[in-house]
Write a structure and sequence with these properties.
Low-confidence stretches: 1-34
CATH topology of one domain: OB fold (Dihydrolipoamide Acetyltransferase, E2P)
Radius of gyration: 16 Å
Distance between the termini: 19 Å
Helix content: 10-25%
CATH superfamily of one domain: Nucleic acid-binding proteins
Shape: globular
Number of strands: 8
CATH class of one domain: Mainly Beta
Largest sheet: 5 strands, mixed, barrel
Mean pLDDT: 78
CATH architecture of one domain: Beta Barrel
Structural class: alpha+beta
Order of helices and strands: HEEEEEHEEE
């Protein structure tokens, strides 16, 4: 599958996932329980030290999370699909210095910091598109070589 086609497949899959999840959202007091829209103009860079990494959270938003200690305190960061991290040999360990580009978005009755780019040392991995859609791991088909999906968008 060509790279352009792979991009559109991921975009469509993200839209289907978002729409399916949107139908299951509960609202409390008029506030949506889902993530608000992502806007590149609101992106910030979070620099700090990894406190903990969780490949699969028990509470929404589901997926991988990393807890980062920065100059502004401790921040819980949603990374998305842990299989994408694993497929790109991207590991986060307590004590690692990390740089994350993303933004805080309204989520439920509060906010959630969601990552678009994650960097440890010289390794950078995109976990969301520029529109804020989570990127998902696609397993190689039989006979197909596994290819890295990482790198900034």
């Amino acid at each position: 599958m060509r790279m352009g086609m792979r991009y559109w497949v991921m975009v469509v899959a993200g839209l289907v996932f978002c729409c399916a999840a949107g139908g299951q959202e509960k609202t409390t007091g008029g506030a949506s329980a889902g993530l608000a829209s992502y806007d590149l103009a609101r992106e910030v860079t979070l620099v700090g030290t990894v406190e903990a990494f969780t490949a699969s959270a028990d509470a929404p938003p589901l997926g991988a999370h990393v807890t980062v200690r920065s100059g502004n305190g401790i921040v819980d960061v949603h990374l998305g699909d842990a299989r994408l991290l694993s497929a790109n040999h991207f590991t986060l360990h307590s004590g690692d210095s990390v740089r994350i580009v993303g933004e805080s978005v309204a989520y439920g009755n509060g906010t959630q910091f969601v990552a678009r780019l994650v960097q440890i040392g010289t390794q950078v991995l995109a976990v969301r598109s520029v529109r804020g859609l989570p990127l998902f791991y696609r397993a190689p088909r039989q006979g197909e070589q596994a290819k890295s999906q990482g790198g900034p968008l």
